[in-house]
Give the backbone structure.
Amino acid sequence: MLSDYTAIIVKSGEWYAGFVKELPGAHSQGKTVEEVKENLKEAIRMVVESNYRHSIKGYKKVIEEKILVNV
């Protein structure tokens, strides 16, 4: 599934640092903008999976549906 997110990337000394506007906790750094973007993709996958696992933990029944939102 493809989703789009907004990467905010800033230059910090010799490095670049970045975070994902829509997803608190997804942040990374790298020596190039491209490296930060690749690292952020992995951070997004990890944060989304972690949030999912923690949100359903302990429930006996989980209903999973797609919801479309136009913002």
In short: The mean pLDDT is 94.
